[in-house]
Amino acid sequence: MDGELIIMKVIEENGFKKLIADEGKKIRNINDVYGIDEEGEHYPYYATEIYLAKNLDISKIEELYTEEEVSDEKVS
After folding, report:
1. What share of the chain is helix, strand, coil (3-state, %, to 5)?
2. Are 64 and 17 spatial neighbours (Cβ–Cβ below 8 Å)?
3. Regions of the chain where pLDDT drops below 70
4. Residue ranges of domains in the chain
5. In 3D, which of 76, 73, 60 has the Cα closest to residue 19?
6. Is 4 helix (H, G, I), strand (E, B) or coil?
7. How many CB atoms lie within 10 A of CB 67?
8. Contacts within 8 Å (CB) and 24+ apart, 7-10
């Protein structure tokens, strides 16, 4: 991810913080490996919105989550 622009947005509504992916992209936890495809390869769980813990330090978002363009065939 070196040099890439992160465009994820954090909004707050009704007392909750929500991380939202830019249009056409998906968010994933940097360390997340969720499933195994038919070739036995692991792939991460992607989302377009993630509710964040109330005590999460927003300055740490880029250390925890990444935003990627993902083809629909690899989305779980």
Report:
1. 15, 35, 50
2. no
3. 1-7, 33, 72-76
4. 9-74
5. 60
6. coil
7. 23
8. 7/67, 8/61, 8/65, 8/67, 10/52, 10/58, 10/61
Q: Alpha-carbon distance 24 to 21, whole Å?
A: 8
This prediction's pTM: 0.69
Q: Give the DSSP H or E segment for 63.
A: helix 61-64
Q: Indicate the residue type of 56.
A: L
Backbone dihedral angles phi then psi of residue 17, each to the nearest 5 degrees: -100, 140
Q: What pLDDT, on a 0 to 100 scale, did the predictor assign at position 48?
A: 93
Is-contact 41 2, C-beta < 8 A? no
3-state secondary structure of 28: strand
